[in-house]
């Protein structure tokens, strides 16, 4: 795994975000040369600064809507692998800003793939969408890659659209049966809800809880009974990396969609919140918000058997350990410790498990 990435040129959009920052540090640790393209971090504090991601990357700031700047940044770098993570990632924000959500998640994806078309060096593209890209029927069965795409809210539907954009580009410009001619293998990754140290996004469960715990204030939870496929951020990131490796090796059967979710059952929000409050201690607590606001899915489960069977992808942490690692990270940050070595230590510990 490490040897393949040593010296490899990787272009990564969204490196200033939570998942993008963790992926950047992991790739750099394995010896990859990483160039990032993203907007400024959207929160204060943020993982990019706290974990010193800038030390591991060539940092370029730009908007996905700026097609010429994006194309120049990618083509000039001549990457071999592209990870596309940049997005408007929040359901509730998509209600207040639907046009920007579609512009970023749909046209931004198209702009990345257009830039790839102009770069003869690219061999593998992993475009990250979400588990919310499925037409959610609010049933108990986990969704598989062959289930219909959809989306009630602008965020979910924009990610379903991004999936269709990738599928169209793959069929039109990077057909799997002609991989030996164009050499560009494109896949999409649909991950469940991720947790881990360094996420401070608005309207997300773990960041909302941490903000309340730090201020010693009760945290209002919108939908305690909602069920989600929770997992530590390093679990799906390992899946993205393994998928990129298969694509780089020009194995055409992997140029498709893959789910990345927990091996165990999904947990309700209230169980996560209670576990975190107990782990933080002191007066940490949460309350039910009687006005949950806009529509959000009540139940979502993900079937990741395809990734486990075809990629040999494993999830050694599980939700209990994922919560422990997450709380350890935030406690260390709250104590004012240097989070760069602590973050790398968690990556190394995960590598030893995986």
UniProtKB/TrEMBL annotation:
<dbReference type="InterPro" id="IPR013445">
    <property type="entry name" value="CDP_4_6_deHydtase"/>
</dbReference>
<dbReference type="InterPro" id="IPR001509">
    <property type="entry name" value="Epimerase_deHydtase"/>
</dbReference>
<dbReference type="InterPro" id="IPR036291">
    <property type="entry name" value="NAD(P)-bd_dom_sf"/>
</dbReference>
<feature type="domain" description="NAD-dependent epimerase/dehydratase">
    <location>
        <begin position="10"/>
        <end position="249"/>
    </location>
</feature>
<comment type="similarity">
    <text>Belongs to the NAD(P)-dependent epimerase/dehydratase family.</text>
</comment>
<protein>
    <recommendedName>
        <fullName>NAD-dependent epimerase/dehydratase domain-containing protein</fullName>
    </recommendedName>
</protein>
<dbReference type="Pfam" id="PF01370">
    <property type="entry name" value="Epimerase"/>
</dbReference>
């Amino acid at each position: 795994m490490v040897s393949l990435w040593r010296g490899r040129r990787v272009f990564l959009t969204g490196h200033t975000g939570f998942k993008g920052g963790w992926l950047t540090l992991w790739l750099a640790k394995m010896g990859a040369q990483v160039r990032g393209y993203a907007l400024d971090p959207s929160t204060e504090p943020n993982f990019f600064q706290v974990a010193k991601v800038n030390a591991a990357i060539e940092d370029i700031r730009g908007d996905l809507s700026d097609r010429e700047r994006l194309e120049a940044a990618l083509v000039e770098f001549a990457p071999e692998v592209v990870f596309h993570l940049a997005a408007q990632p929040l359901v509730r924000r998509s209600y207040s800003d639907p046009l920007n959500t579609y512009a970023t998640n749909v046209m931004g994806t198209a702009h990345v793939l257009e830039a790839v078309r102009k770069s003869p060096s690219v061999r593998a593209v992993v475009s990250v969408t979400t588990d919310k890209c499925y037409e959610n029927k609010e049933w108990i069965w986990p969704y598989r890659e062959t289930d219909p795409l959809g989306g009630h809210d602008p965020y979910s539907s924009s990610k379903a659209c991004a999936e269709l954009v990738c599928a169209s580009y793959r069929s039109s410009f990077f057909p799997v049966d002609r991989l030996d001619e164009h050499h560009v293998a494109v896949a999409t990754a649909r991950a469940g809800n991720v947790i881990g140290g360094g996420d401070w996004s608005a309207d997300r469960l773990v960041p909302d809880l941490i903000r309340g715990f730090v201020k010693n204030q009760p945290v209002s939870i919108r939908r305690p009974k909602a069920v989600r496929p929770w997992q530590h951020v390093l679990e799906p990131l390992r899946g993205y990396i393994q998928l990129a490796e298969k694509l780089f090796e020009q194995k055409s059967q992997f140029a498709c969609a893959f789910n990345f979710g927990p091996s165990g059952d999904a947990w309700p929000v209230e169980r996560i919140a209670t576990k975190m409050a107990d782990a933080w201690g002191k007066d940490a607590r949460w309350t039910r918000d009687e006005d949950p606001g806009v529509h959000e899915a009540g139940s979502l489960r993900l079937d990741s058997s395809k990734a486990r069977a075809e990629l040999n992808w494993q999830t050694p942490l599980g939700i209990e350990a994922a919560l422990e690692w997450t709380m350890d990270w935030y406690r260390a940050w709250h104590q004012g410790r240097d989070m760069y070595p602590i973050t790398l230590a968690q990556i190394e510990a995960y590598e030893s498990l995986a």
